[in-house]
Design a protein that fits this description.
By secondary structure, this protein is an alpha/beta fold. It has helices at residues 17-31, 48-55, 81-86, 97-102, 107-119, 132-136, 140-152, 157-161, 181-198, 201-206, 220-224, 241-248; strands at residues 6-10, 38-42, 61-64, 91-94, 123-128, 164-167, 209-212, 231-234. It has a single domain (6-248), classed as Aldolase class I (TIM Barrel, Alpha-Beta Barrel). It binds phosphoenolpyruvate (PEP).
Length: 251
């Protein structure tokens, strides 16, 4: 089963509208008609509309970094899934470790978001990953399995097929410390086995599992050489056009 590699950029809380449009324009110039690879960028919500305009006619997908799992209402500061659709988003990052840790998002809350995103025709990029103490305590598999079981609970097989999973060991995010390809592959294979148990072999074979955590032009090829690594979710290195383009164009 061939899975089209996906490289996704999470811009986090970086870039004004003008800066975001400049970066999107550079990416569009280099990557806008790429075959055989999917690219998604997730600017901050203030820049989504303008970046969408800049990406019109290109194959680069637009994603949001978060959303609230209700249609509308008194949720000051939050953004509804239909609002993201209305500015041109096709994807949404959910369960990022910064949301889990800094904003105390629980497994159950993230599960509500996943279900709501699917119901609104947004593709969830569901992040899971263990912290350093959890890895040192040898509970990484247990933690990632718990996060996944919670987020995928109750989904139909066709819904499961529409999800993209990102394994992001928290100790590798923004630290410059990448998981070795072996460590990443081991967890990706575990995740795929869990998808087999929860859904079926064909579904597990089709769902893409991205790796995230200090991905750079220098380490992308070794990561992508692993059987179960289907792409990358890139933070820091997605903020510089040259670096992100090199990552997307890995050989
Ligand atoms: C991320 O925030 O999803 C991420 C992987 O960040 P970085 O690439 O900077 O480690």
């Amino acid at each position: 089963m061939s899975r089209i590699p996906m490289i996704a950029g999470n811009w986090k809380m970086h870039k004004t509208v003008a800066e975001a449009v400049r970066l999107a324009a550079a990416l569009r110039g280099a990557l806008g008609n790429l075959a055989g690879r999917e690219v998604m960028i997730a600017p901050p919500c203030t820049a989504l509309s303008e970046v969408a305009r800049e990406l019109t006619g290109s194959s680069i997908h637009l994603g949001a970094q978060n959303m609230y799992p209700e249609d509308s209402g008194a949720f000051t500061g939050e953004i509804a899934p239909a609002m993201l659709r209305s500015v041109g988003c096709s994807h949404v990052i959910l369960g990022h470790s910064e949301r889990r840790q800094i904003f105390n998002e629980s497994d159950d809350f993230i599960a509500r978001k996943v279900a709501k995103a699917l119901a609104t025709d947004l593709t969830p990029v569901l992040c899971v990953g263990e912290t350093l103490p959890e890895r040192e305590a040898e509970t990484a598999v247990e933690v990632v399995s718990r996060q996944l079981r919670a987020a995928l609970k109750g989904l139909t097989k066709s819904e499961a097929l529409r999800i993209i999973i990102a394994y992001e060991p928290v100790w590798a995010i923004g630290t410059g410390r990448t998981a070795t390809p072996d460590i990443a592959q081991e967890m990706h294979a575990t995740i795929r086995r869990l998808l087999q148990d929860l859904f079926s072999d064909p579904i597990a074979a089709q769902v893409r599992i991205l790796y995230g955590g200090s991905v750079k032009p220098e380490n992308i090829s070794a990561l992508m050489a692993e059987t179960d690594i289907d792409g990358a979710l890139v933070g820091g290195a997605s903020l510089k056009a040259e670096d992100f383009i090199q990552i997307v164009e890995y050989t």
